[in-house]
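Q: Predict the assembly, please.
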Amino acid sequence: MLEEFIYEAGDLFPTGSDAELRVQRSRNRAVNIVQGNLVGNGRSDASGTCARVRRGGVCGFSSIADVSKEAARAVLASAVDNADFMDSRLSRGKGAYPVVKGAVLNESWEVSDPEQKYYVDFLRALDSYIIGKYPDLASRGLFARSECIEKVIATSFGTKAHTTFQRSYIYVQMSAMTPAGITVDNLAILGGWNEFDRNFVKPEDFYEKIDNLYKEVRLKSEGVYAEAGTKTCILGGDLSGMLAHEAVGHTVEADLVIGGSVAAGKIGQRVASDLVSMVDYANVTPFGMSPLPLYVDDEGVRCTDAELIRDGILVGYMHNRDSAERFGVTPCGNARAFAYSDEPLIRMRNTAVLPGKSKLEDMIASVDDGYYLCSTNNGQADTTGEFMFGITMGYEIKHGKIGKAILDTTISGVAFDMLKTVDMVSDTVTWSSSGYCGKKQQMPVSLGGPALRCKVNIGGR
Amino acid sequence: MKEIYDLGQISEEIIKKLGSAGAQKSSCGVTCREKHEFNYTSGDFSLFRTLFSTSLSISAIKDQKHGAASVNRLDEDAINTAVADCIAAAEASEADPAWDIAPLTENAEFINGTLEPDVELLFERTRELVDTIGKKFPKIVIEELIASYSVSHSVYANSNGVRYDSREGYYSISVDFSAHDGDKASSFFYSFALTPTLDKPFIELSSIEQDLADIEKQIDTRPVEGKYVGTVILAPGCLGELLGSALENFASDPRILDKTSIWIDKLGKQVASPLLTVSLSVKDDRLAVTDDYTSEGFRSESFNVIENGILKHFLLSLYVANKTGLDRAPNDGGACIIEGGDKTLDEIISGIDRGLIVGRFSGGQPAANGEFSGVAKNSFIIENGKITGAASETMISGNLADLLMNVNSISKETVCDGTSILPYIAFDGVTVSGK
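A: Predicted assembly structure:
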């Protein structure tokens, strides 16, 4: 584990400046099997030290691929030089940030690091199960990965924090042929928070999910194109989570608000139906531990929940210390950095639409002609709130009953318009935690939500 | 760039260590990099960032079993750990005769770009761009602007005796922005350029000035009426992204290895309009970047992936090439070049009754068979040969394979961002869905 020597580096912090010092180690393990061929098999390990110093309202940052007291001294000196460079040319003359209480905590642990053979053997077992039971598949692929990020953070305002972030997954992909000879595919993601050898103990624990994936891809191979237009849809939890993150979450990141996002100036205004509430959780939710719990951000601010929408009313943005000062609020620990060489940016953590009271089956039964959209492979949104999600698994709803599967399609809309059409919210939240959000740096995030009944544009052929 | 490591010596030692550990074939790539970066966010300069980094990637084949490892430190402990990890990964693998490394042909040293930064001038060019945007495009709000200089020294070595030594340094500028007028706003857009020098103001590079002007015209938008099949012009940046998706779906390693590519039997056959030639270039005087050798240790060569509509190559690694009996790609992707055509953009627009110019495509990952659908962002509506407004909430859909066959025309104008050269291309038969 990383040593906590930077806790004693307080005398290195430049007098009268806000300063952060971080040492970090990131470990990734990956194995990839395509059509039975082991095409990827590697381990990576990256560690280093970085510092950020703020003077006169501008920041200098520096990083080096070394973990030592000398490295800490070097990056602090380089960060000071960079801050001075900017300050001397811009002369913004701003003072220090408002004082926040330093976070003193230890949420680190000695993670297990199974040998590469463990990953290979586990994937091989799943691959053997798939090819043995489902030889009619057009193709199959399995990808295992484990990601561990350990950080020690010290700041000029007293933060001394040591954290471990550990998640691991297996992605299972299957393809099947349609009667017309077209390939369709679908993906199941297994795993979550924790080490690989804790999440994946016995291959047979995952056979049921693999069987379900096969059923879905078979249904999809007999699927139909969605009919283009504005339709009443039930968005499953994956979709409402994507909506929370992409279409709403980004527009309420304070740096994008300052850049003119659609959420600018809308605090206190209705942006969704009163059935919709949304929170960016830190480490505990009302329905259990956050999928990716975070306790301190990379500015050294303790993580607390950021409430975004309450009963349809926009109530807050997500901040770093700089934007919190501008808006006169207390930051909730949303400033996150991915690699040791990355500076903290305003990022989401565990962003979710809160559950309602409806039952999913009642929601489906209430739709005469529409779609139940279950899975998405990506989503993008604009600062205007206009969003697009790729749909990889969904079904027609005809007269209140699930009908044929649909082929890949896209849904789109304008978030704050679409959310006002939400008239039923299911009582169960589902999370996905395997993904990365892209915003200069990539960042592990989780997203969740209940099923939503709403009106949305769906693309056809 | 100050270097405290002897990369040549480190790479030699690693190849020896891998051999001693039982690898019959091995390779390594070792790099030192320095980066200087100015950030402008939330309406002001916010950060000056300097990074000093190193990286090591190693690969070993032991008894025809393959393993890989990477670390970002070059001290002896880190190297020994990486070697042990790499060998352990190989031993955990399964023998496959398709794994191999590049043969020795001719070793070489390469120098590209500018190896010493002018940080002061980089800052001034950045401030100049911010000022120019403020004066010439008052409705533009910069969401994020990043100006950087990156210099690196890399050494590649393998157990066949291949040795490459490469030094390169480039400046880059990227701007994310949108246009605003009161409560009304355009969609966001981004512009990018890579350049070896700071001779020109950033505003003159790539399509930055044109992009800013276009986005200012997209504050007031309207949805397209109804649904129709028409002609869609893809702007260079958008063209590059969709073309990349097509090549990934139809010509890349996974789709050829699992035989799900719809081009699997199309080598030497027509897969696109005869008007279309797509080159993946490793050196061109118009480009900033040069690609001297591949990540597998082969000297890079330019090639046409599609030539006059005929599929000439798949984009395969050595492993998949050996696995399938097909040819390895002559480079790792290179710089995409499509030369300009015989009509100006205005002439192309004047020939379209109903269609769009699409600046950015916001869509899901196209399906394996090439079906795509998504939102036409930063787009203009074409009616009766004229641009009649900017579009909102408009979707386009089609099939990437069909799209490539349906080239209507290619513009004379091209955009070079330092990493690619692309024109505007008009494609027929695209479904456009509005409200």
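Chain A touches chain B through 86 residues (CB under 8 Å). The first helix of chain A runs from residue 69 to 90.
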